[in-house]
Amino acid sequence: MIFFAPAKINLGLHVLRKRSDAYHDIESIFYPVNWCDAVELTTSKQNHFSVYGRPVDGNEKDNLCVKAFRLIQQKYDLANASINLLKNIPSGAGLGGASSDAVAILHLCNQVFNLDLSRDTLLHLAAQIGSDCPFFVHPEAAIISGRGDCMKPIHLPLKGMHLLIVWPGFTLSTANAYAHIHPVDQRKPISQILQQPLDQWQNLLHNDFEKTAISICPEISDIKNIMLREKAIFASMSGSGSSVFGLWNEAPDIDAMIAGMKVKKQNIFYTKIS
Length: 274
Prior knowledge:
Blueprint: E1 2-18, E2 24-43, E3 48-53, H1 64-76, E4 81-87, H2 97-112, H3 119-129, E5 142-145, E6 150-153, E7 162-166, H4 174-179, H5 190-193, H6 201-204, H7 210-216, H8 219-229, E8 234-237, E9 244-248, H9 254-261, E10 268-272
Parallel strand pairs: 3-4
Antiparallel strand pairs: 1-2, 2-4, 2-5, 5-6, 7-9, 7-10, 8-9
Helix pairs in contact: 1-2, 2-3
């Protein structure tokens, strides 16, 4: 059985404070995007995990897909499985691909092994895998708070807009990003900022990781500036980087932008939001 795992972008990302459990309290808006990985799971005599498409850094035992399967296998005494992951979403790009893949494993196990797990149970399992994982249990635009595990659905006026995501080809470490962050507690909530007209978001809506990421990967700033020159209503880095996305009311001249950005076409995703 195959499950398509979507990416997400962050509309703003505030790091509010460091918690006693070593995580940080954040506030952001997660928005699902149909740039998808494909995850296949079948029963097998032995556990097996293979990755195709884009490379994935790290050891197999540290992969969130493997972690997710081991968690649910042990909890429900499941048979072994063969997992095949086709990576389309770049890793270390701030798009949540690894978290989404892990939740895909939970959904697949729920179906393949007829577990009949409720949404609340899947959310509980997802939270044990990673902070971003609960969002992907039922991905819809949501205000994200806590360490990333608190969600409140939100309506955003993005239908019909044109979305371009560009990955500059550099992987950035989330752990390193947090190590250099300076939390700011007292700020206007992102949910209030998004009540302003969309053409005002650029001056009001910020990603706290962007400054540090640009110091490591200046291409982030270059890509963002090209998008804004091409009349993007809003452009920002996603997550802890390094992907940058832009929103337009009308279809932008993507070819002209790509020429200026000097990025590979496979590192670009474009869609009209439906």
